[in-house]
Amino acid sequence: MQKHAVAIQLVFWAFDLVDDAVDGDQNVPGLTYAQQIVLSHIVMMKALNLFDVELRDGIMSLIVSSGYGEFEDISFTYQRDNVLTEDNYIKMVTAKSGRLMELIAVIIDKDNVPLRQFMINIGIAAQIKNDIQGIENPNKSDFKDKKMYLPLIKYMFFSKDNKLEQCTRENIIQSGALEYCRLLYNYYIEKAYRILFDAFPTMSDDLKELKNEFNF
Q1: Phi and psi (nearest 5°) for 77?
Q2: What predicted TM-score, i.e. pTM, was given to this entire model?
Q3: Which one of 23, 25, 107, 156 is most buried, counting C-beta atoms within 10 A?
């Protein structure tokens, strides 16, 4: 289990290296864009080598799904003639973040369906939280790059500013878009824990205590 835990951390780091390189962020000080990409390949191969053989096919399937989600994320930006929807966003983050988090469930118990569904929903919620912070944090590039994440999608819906002519961080916040995103974050957290409460009714007190860690 310890070996697999290290492997999962390496997979996450490999994806972070690519994500930060594409976004123009420097994950490892002193490395160039090209070096971060090459390092991500090395880290991913080291991770795959750590997984037990009988788990590799299932793990590779999830990594590929997450990779396609990451690939779609790169072009998930504002286009005047092709406005992306909330459904598009949820589909993308389910692949990108949900499947990546599902890896944790696979190494714990690959046949435990409730645990896998729990981790998928936690992954979706975590991505929504990250995208909220992308608007609130001026050091992140999501707003500058006009990434069509949930905050921008809901800003356009609430404000009717479909050409983003009045789009500022302040206007996104004032539109109520981030409040909506927080509600959806809480929805996926509740959905995730309802799965566990139903699957493990005798552990409800412990699960409630764990759930409090996700308050946002």
Answers
A1: -125, 170
A2: 0.89
A3: 156
